[in-house]
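In response to reviewer comment 3 from the previous cycle, which asked for concrete evidence that the modeling workflow produces usable outputs, we include below a single protein chain processed end to end. The sequence was submitted unchanged, and the resulting structure tokens are shown without manual editing.
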Amino acid sequence: MYAAIGLLVGCGSDTVGLGDAGTDDGSVGRPEPGLDASTSDPACQGPGYFSREAATAIHTYRGRVVDQDGNGAEDIPAQACGINVCLFGVTDQDGNVELTVSETPVEKPRFKYGKGKSFPMFALPMAGGPVIDVGEQLSWRLPDVSTSAPLGPGEVSYGAVTLSIAPTARIRIDLLSFDDEDEQGFRAARIPLDKAPSAVDASLGIEVLYSLNPIDSMFCPRAQLQLPKSESWPPGTEVDVLLHGTRIQEEWAPYGGWAEVSAASVSSDGASIDTVADEGIPMLGVIGLRRAR
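The workflow returned the following structure tokens.
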């Protein structure tokens, strides 16, 4: 049995950032609701990765999403979503999704699944058409939202993962997607690389993978991030922090790709990995770490 619904123009579930972020067609749009979406400070704006691609005509797409134990991930968004239109589906009780519509040109189609509530969000580039089968895609069941830590200025910790947010920082949480107070709290989960989905590009050399939630929460200035060090990296090892791009606006990372957003290093006592003081992460989402290239 497959579950699927609808077609959305412009992937309306995406939100704009702290300032004048791009809309679905690359133009400047109106900020949407958040804790604070009222700044045009250049420091809050990403470098931008927006680009155009030839549209792919899609008639049918199908796939299956499974959790870390191989069980079907039920009732999560699973879309064929481009920068111009989304073909929106939801997984059934076995984690399957299939959607058939009138043939629709989709620019930069990505198999975009999860929402950052029960599962992280990933965006896998889709090729081919008009019938696309992405096969079985892995995900990772997140800790329950009831365990979240309130997200605000100061130090916010979830287990051994800590965000340091400046007292005067502007914070934007996507209140349209995370309308429950527990959902707006900070949660972090490490995803073992042997459970990483296809959206994690092996050529990037990512060695550590985390999901930081609520996804798309933005900080200006950037938040400092401290992660526990479990690898055999010696003190002083330089580290790249990469962000997975799931936003069609592509402010901080290419849609369906990855981009380096901060440098980090292993602490002098070898206990943690810390972003460097003048950098940090601009937003929450799926991040990857690798020894600096």
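The CA atoms of residues 163 and 225 lie 5 Å apart. We consider this sufficient to address the reviewer's concern, and the full set will be provided in the supplementary archive.
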